[in-house]
Write a structure and sequence with these properties.
single chain, alpha/beta, Rossmann fold, nine-stranded mixed sheet
Length: 337
């Protein structure tokens, strides 16, 4: 385990104390975006946002986590643009503004993570490269990190470098051990498909519910928590509930695919790990970094993730000190390459 280094590079990011006052400026910049959608290979509407605010600048492509919409990333977009980058973001199928595949629109569902990858490929090739150029960096969070890894295995020359924020190499199966959880999920999914094509919620999961800040497992920043909770409360179309058995089964398969094809990764990759993460498996992140570094010496320096001390899962929405550290580490990684 290594902590984020103290670097000479200094950046200016938005801060909690001024975030509410900065909302008009953030909103003004947001109006410069292009908001549209494209058709997936199976005819779903996949929504995206593009910010082409700097001529001939590199582009940071953001791959959000499960249940997220690009609408949640206004502050991050503001900060990245102010550092001289263009920005491209996608709403993965089944969440955000993109099409939902089941009758219950709040079910977290995908048939196969390859569907996410295929959508992402159309987005990169037909939208991002056509409008923003080919100098691309990847900033991916949680489930978006899983998608990003699978994508880079199949399309190794797309990104100059990648920063993965709390990547979901595997879900956190606690309190059940992983060796027990995976077979139970897979067998439950199999039997579920015998009775319905709508996939049932996993045990304990259900429709969209407002989260409370107290004891939340996402972040320490109350102001950022309140902003994104208000967004989801007021924007019904992006609300999403818990995961289905199908989604969990697909997530397990993607975990296996990541390790089975790890030698195919050639993009320089950095993994940022939230020390107090309870959403995804830090142990699997460590395993990923150890194996990846053996095959690609410029990824996961010393074979380890960069650990953000004291942080919960949402590194890009954490309290200032941890968020500043995460963004600085990411941009320095991009600058290095």
């Amino acid at each position: 385990m290594i902590t984020a280094p103290t670097l000479a590079t200094t950046y200016s990011f938005s801060q909690e104390a001024n975030l509410i006052a900065a909302q008009p400026s953030i909103d003004q910049l947001w109006q410069k975006g292009v908001f549209a959608h494209f058709k997936s290979g199976d005819d779903l509407d996949i929504h995206y946002a593009l910010f082409n605010t700097h001529d001939d600048a590199a582009t940071i492509v953001v791959s959000p986590g499960r249940s997220e919409s690009y609408l949640k990333y206004k502050e991050l977009t503001y900060d990245l643009i102010n550092q001289g980058y263009n920005v491209a973001m996608i709403d993965h199928r089944g969440q955000g503004l993109s099409s939902r595949e089941l009758e219950d629109k709040e079910k977290g569902y995908v048939a196969d993570f390859q569907n996410y990858v295929d959508d992402f490929h159309i987005f990169i090739e037909q939208v991002v490269k056509q409008q923003l150029g080919n100098q691309l960096y990847l900033l991916a969070h949680s489930m978006g990190g899983n998608i990003g890894i699978l994508y880079m295995q199949q399309h190794p020359k797309t990104f100059v470098a990648a920063s993965l924020s709390s990547p979901m190499i595997a879900i956190n199966a606690d309190p059940a051990p992983a060796w027990l959880a995976a077979p139970l999920i897979q067998s439950s999914h199999f039997f579920n498909t015998l009775f319905t094509d709508q996939s049932s919620y996993f045990i304990g999961h259900g429709g969209f519910k407002e989260k409370q800040f107290t004891n939340n497992d996402l972040m320490h920043s109350k102001v950022r928590f309140d902003i994104f909770q208000t967004l989801y409360k007021q924007t019904k179309k992006i609300q999403l509930g818990g995961v289905t058995l199908a989604w969990l089964d697909a997530a397990i398969a993607s975990d296996k695919a990541i390790f089975a094809n790890i030698k195919q990764l050639s993009t320089p990759i950095m993994v940022m790990q939230a020390e107090l993460d309870t959403v995804v498996s830090n142990e699997k992140q460590d395993e990923f970094c150890q194996q990846l570094h053996q095959h690609h010496a410029d990824s996961c320096i010393n074979g380890k993730a960069v650990v953000i001390k004291g942080a919960k899962h949402e590194l890009l929405f954490e309290s200032d000190a941890m968020r500043n550290q995460s963004l600085t580490t990411t941009l320095d990684w991009f600058n290095k390459h």
